[in-house]
Design a protein that fits this description.
About 50% of the residues lie in helices and about 10% in strands. With about 475 residues, the protein is of the alpha/beta class. The protein has 4 domains: about 110 residues, GMP Synthetase, Chain A, domain 3 (2-Layer Sandwich), CATH 3.30.300.180; about 150 residues, P-loop containing nucleotide triphosphate hydrolases (Rossmann fold, 3-Layer(aba) Sandwich); about 70 residues, Helicase, Ruva Protein, domain 3 (Orthogonal Bundle); about 90 residues, Chromosomal Replication Initiator Protein Dnaa, Chain: A, CATH 1.10.1750. A hairpin with a 4-residue loop joins strand 3 and strand 4. Helix 6 packs antiparallel against helix 7, helix 10 packs across helix 11 and helix 16 packs across helix 17. The termini are far apart. The structure holds adenosine-5'-diphosphate and magnesium ion. Magnesium ion (MG) binds next to helix 5.
Length: about 475
């Protein structure tokens, strides 16, 4: 008997709620309640999610839970498909992706299909080994079509890495950037850029075989091959790739000696044959001490390009781009507020944006500055948000109707000096930054200048009525 999709989804929700537990009620409300079940056909349950962001968020954070839930409800042949509601109009795109409830991994072929994805019909490369005799490799590159170079916003934080990526995609294996090592902290865009280079390479050179693997996957495959006695096939397979991208290589540090050894051989083979190798790591090569020395020395052959945290302009550009892609409108003051207040990494920046969008669609509320403030407080303060120096400067400058850049200028104009001193004073009071850092960010001054500014402001605050009023007004704004 056919099951009713609504009933099935209601049961799924129960399981999900149960698994998330009491502590995660907010998560449940934000990410699962807004989902609308659409149909159940051939054991494939289709659910509608409000946006692309929403879908990606689910996939990134709750894929295991969803898989487990579907398996419990629909058995091992059960599948989940998403329909993404674009914009606020009721235009739903066709089914875009699927999670098989079995299988090691969900497919990464997302909404916009990778243009040059070569697929053997399998969504995964769980068994990537080719049959001897086949001339040209047909593999799923495992590239995520949303992670393009065009989508990768350029800023000071990533300029070198991004342009090296372009060069490598133009001319894979033929630049001095081989290997290209992308390193930087979490959420700064290593994985995105690595995929982007792969995608661009396939655009420029459709005949090239590109493969993206996580270092974890690579390790798993190597160890399976060992168990199955197919290590030679494993090596052979990897030696036929034109561009090999290995993500998060730090994962092998202080372990996986065999895997490192195998990779070392593959590396040598590919390098000799002018095939491109791209590696990402959350540590700089000099800090990757847990890797075998000879492998480490190979990694230093090419270019190591680091990704750092984006500045506020870049953060704003990233937010605008994400909104643009999703066709969502958001007032400028809200975008500014998010960009000024979330400065850790791009992933958190996106997280805040997504939460805000979800929250507004959930409660059918307009996205306003007030809503943004509430959200950011709820979702981010709980981690380790502290008010940023940039945000302080912005509030101070807005108050005095000065451009924010004026604080950075060497001018001695009284009103600007005052705004700078006030920014330093509040930065000292409200952030954990050192005097040196505050000085650096407020017009490249030294720590003694900051100290002097703090004293001046404190004095004036006690003796000058007008000044006292300003300090009070500004304090109110920070507390809003
Ligand atoms: P990492 O691999 O360094 O931890 P990711 O590549 O997973 O970081 O990036 C985290 C998120 O931030 C991704 O959704 C990615 O698309 C986004 N992102 C990072 N840098 C940029 C950028 N410069 N422009 C647009 N999006 C970015
Ligand atoms: Mg990554």
């Amino acid at each position: 008997m056919a099951q009713d999709y609504k009933v099935v989804w209601a049961k799924c929700l129960e399981i999900i709620k149960d698994n998330l537990g009491k502590d995660n009620e907010q998560v449940y409300k934000t990410w699962f309640e807004p989902i609308v079940p659409l149909q159940l056909e051939n054991n494939v349950l289709t659910i509608q999610v409000p946006s692309q962001f929403f879908y990606e968020w689910l996939e990134e954070h709750y894929i295991d839970l969803l898989k487990k839930t579907i398996r419990l409800q629909l058995g091992t042949t059960g599948m989940l498909m998403y329909s993404i509601l674009m914009d606020t109009s009721i235009e739903s795109t066709p089914i875009t992706t699927s999670i098989p409830s079995t299988g090691a991994q969900a497919t990464h072929n997302r909404a916009k299909d990778v243009p040059h994805l070569i697929s053997d019909g399998n969504h995964e490369i769980s068994n990537p080994f080719i049959i001897p005799g086949i001339q040209k490799l047909k593999i799923n590159s495992q590239l995520n079509g949303n992670y393009t170079l065009e989508n990768f916003v350029e800023g000071d934080c990533n300029r070198l890495a991004r342009s090296a990526g372009f060069a490598v995609a133009e001319n894979p294996g033929r630049t001095s950037f081989n290997p290209l090592l992308l390193h930087g902290g979490v959420g700064l865009g290593k994985t995105h850029l690595a995929h982007a280079i792969g995608i661009k390479t396939k655009e420029k050179h459709p005949e090239k075989t590109v493969l993206y693997v996580s270092s974890e996957q690579f390790l798993q495959q190597y160890s399976d091959a060992g168990k199955n006695g197919t290590t030679n096939d494993f090596l052979h397979f990897y030696e036929m790739i034109d561009m090999l991208i290995v993500d998060d290589i730090q994962f092998w540090a202080n372990k996986a000696a065999g895997t490192q050894e195998a990779f070392f051989h593959i590396f040598n083979h590919l390098h000799q044959n002018h095939c491109q190798i791209i590696i990402t790591s959350d540590k700089a090569p000099s800090e990757l001490s847990g890797l075998q020395p000879r492998l480490l020395s190979r990694l230093k052959w090419g270019l190591a390009a680091d990704l750092t945290a984006p500045d506020v302009e870049t953060r704003m550009a990233i937010l605008r781009q994400k909104l643009d892609n999703d066709g969502i409108e958001m007032p400028d003051d809200v975008i500014e507020y998010i960009a000024y207040n979330i400065n850790t990494n791009v992933r958190e920046l996106e997280g805040a944006l997504v939460s805000l969008i979800a929250q507004s669609s959930l409660n059918k509320r307009q996205i306003t500055l007030d809503l943004a403030k509430q959200m950011i407080d709820k979702f981010v303060k709980s981690t380790t948000r502290e008010i940023t120096i940039e945000y302080i400067q912005k509030v101070v400058c807005d108050y005095f109707k000065l451009p924010v850049e004026s604080i950075q200028s060497p001018t001695r104009k009284r009103e600007i000096v005052q705004a700078r001193q006030l920014s330093m004073y509040f930065a000292k009071k409200m952030t954990k930054s050192s005097l040196a850092i505050i000085g650096l960010q407020c017009g490249n001054k030294d720590h003694a200048t900051v100290l002097h500014a703090c004293k001046t402001v404190a004095n004036l605050n006690d003796t000058d009525k007008q000044f006292h009023y300003w300090v009070e007004e500004l304090e109110k704004r920070f507390k809003e």
